[in-house]
Design goal:
alpha+beta, four-stranded antiparallel sheet, five-stranded antiparallel sheet, 2 domains
Length: 279
């Protein structure tokens, strides 16, 4: 058998155990002929490679250990001459000649590599160079800030922010206090409220509006919707839908659930004008 024919047999055996052969390929393989040991070694190699990605940290079953040892004895024999340290480098034979089959060396070399990979995958934990048995470092707990702490940090890190105080809107018996802080550079800010009545989210919601410089009050920037479900001070981050520049005032309206694109401003709960010449 020529080297080209042997390569063809190797390809066909690989396809046989991975994809399966059609009738024409099966006839070609039978015509070329092959050593049954070659086929078994390739089949075992493919099976081992298919197990490499199994995620397991359990001890290797005793039955599997025994089977691997028996397979090794069957292939290499119990002759001390087959000791790993004494085995010479195999000679690859592409043409005719005596000695071990080219497929035999090739198949068992790949199978050995696959077994090593399989052992590493099954019995060494994943996740880098962490060795088995060593304790996993405890990650530092993530710092969780309250809304008030987030607002305070924002104010400390935003020297160019503007601030506005909430005053009454156009709704009777609604007396809102608190303030707004906003940064053009960060396009972010917070509103702090007290006295805004609780709302039923299924019936209505509150919506914040940002009135930019030179912009009419009828087309302000949507600053996001929110609900009031508790008493006392409420701090809410501003969620501007588009970029807002140099705001002149902020307003809160009562809208339908989910908010609106353009408010009719029928229920203005509070207004916060920005004072000029802020530093």
């Amino acid at each position: 058998m020529t080297g080209e024919e042997k390569e063809k047999v190797l390809d066909l055996l690989y396809d046989k155990f991975v994809y399966g052969l059609n009738d024409e390929e099966a006839r070609e393989l039978d015509h070329l002929g092959y050593d049954q040991r070659d086929a078994e070694s390739i089949e075992k190699t493919i099976a081992a490679l298919g197990l490499v990605d199994l995620d397991s940290a359990t001890e290797m079953p005793a039955s599997l250990t025994s089977k691997l040892l028996r397979d090794a004895d069957d292939h290499f024999g119990a002759d001390p001459a087959n000791d790993v340290a004494a085995v010479p480098q195999p000679q690859i034979v592409l043409g005719g000649g005596r000695g071990r089959s080219w497929f035999d060396w090739m198949g068992w070399a790949v199978a050995a590599a696959a077994c090593v990979a399989l052992t590493v995958s099954l019995f060494i934990p994943r996740g880098g160079s962490q060795l088995a048995g060593q304790p996993t470092p405890t990650p530092s707990p993530e710092e969780r800030l309250t809304p008030a702490q987030e607002r305070q940090r924002f104010m400390e890190s935003s020297p160019q922010m503007v601030k506005a105080e909430w005053g009454p809107g156009k709704m009777e018996n609604v007396n809102v206090s608190g303030d707004v802080v906003w940064s053009d550079a960060k396009q972010a800010g917070y509103i702090r409220l007290r006295g805004l009545p609780k709302n039923d989210p299924d019936k209505q919601t509150y919506q914040l509006w940002i009135v930019e410089e030179g912009q009419g009050p009828k087309t302000p920037v949507d600053g996001g919707v929110f609900d009031i479900t508790t008493d006392g001070d409420v701090i809410i981050p501003i969620d501007a839908k588009i970029r807002a520049r140099n705001p002149q005032a902020f307003a809160i309206t009562v809208e339908k659930p989910g908010g609106v694109v353009i408010s009719k401003q029928e229920k203005v709960a509070a207004i916060a004008p920005v004072k000029l010449n802020q530093t």
